Amino acid sequence: MSTVVLGGGLAGLTAAYALERDGHGVTVLEAQEAPGGACRSFAEDGFTFDLTGHLLHVAREETRQLLEELGLWEELEIHERRAAVVIGGRATPYPVQINTWGLSDEVRRDCLLGFVRAWCQHGEEAAPADFRRWVLGRFGEGLARHFFFPYNEKLYRVRPEELSLDWVGRYVPKPALEEVIDGALGLHRNRVGYNALFRYPRRGGIALLPDAIAGRLRCLEPGNRAGVVDTDARVVETENGRRFSWERLIATIPLPALVDRLRPKPPAEVLEARRALRWVSVLNVALGLEGLAPTDQHWLYFPDPQLPFYRVGFPSNHGDLAPPDCHTVSIEVSMDPGAGDPQAMAEAAERALEAAGYLDRSRILVRRTAILDPAYVVFDHARSGALAIIRRELAGRGVLLAGRWAQWVYSAMEDAMLDGLAAARQIIGAEGA
Which CATH number fits the domain that encloses residue 15? Predict the structure, then answer.
């Protein structure tokens, strides 16, 4: 039985690998000439750049087994996270809610006092309706005003009350009162958060992962972007005129693009749900510079609304990505899809980072800019209902969804690989039933 996989990112590649390993016929259609999706790397003049920050967090034994099977486990070096939040020009370790000790006295007092007041009132609103109320009830007014509200407004480009709570889960550490007090005094020592430890290739960039999987496949068709997905004829027609028949279809491409390509055309309810999906794009400015990095941090968060970027990474601090006595910088700017002048935005971001003391533009040797679209799902209050409608339609058409963009979620690289394995198991199990 033949399977077509739409998208050659980590989820699609892993699904294809598991299917081929089990003896199933499969074809992966990837729009780009290289596999990996957003998990790609580019080399130029001795520098290696990833498309924004891509770090591997391994929490499941199944993931480790897969990486060992692919010969990758020993190629991934483990790192203890060094990340900071910069507020008012002062950096303090991430997560800020248990590390306010590095901030100014005034900001630290605001954060501590607000948290204590919220802690004393905890339980008055058992089920907050939105992210704004959740933050105020959980962290208090100070942390909300100095970090949570401006940072997430900058990243998601919506007001905090427009966000639901579907995404917070493991991604927003929720400390106890004792941890916050210790953090204000510089006494907190425990690792916190899903990304406290991460793995990254010893050599080269994150493309090591998709390249290793793609190298095991016989079925990869790069440069083939799906144009029409006909679920009645069970055929995918690519934009370059090729046709691929399928008995099973795994989609990993962004959900809005998938709905747009469906034939027969979906019902009005599904099209309305598709229009309700919201996301942001990210402008990534990757720089290669001579000299040592201005900080030993792996990345920095910038909630200040006056700064155009929300996060800045120094990837050469955790990977062999630059020539001797050089370093790399990765600037991330959130933007509305299709809006803005990327060149002007990149210029403004560089200037702002230089003014903040983390960049010397006179030492730039290599510059690359890229736009990730989509980059982040906006978890607004319409998302859940719209997603249910679209998923029901796709399930009725026999389409399996895997990965961050097809499932329209916020997830990590490990999740993408596990999604691919799960989709493959579903097909293998159905055929063996």
Answer: 3.50.50.60
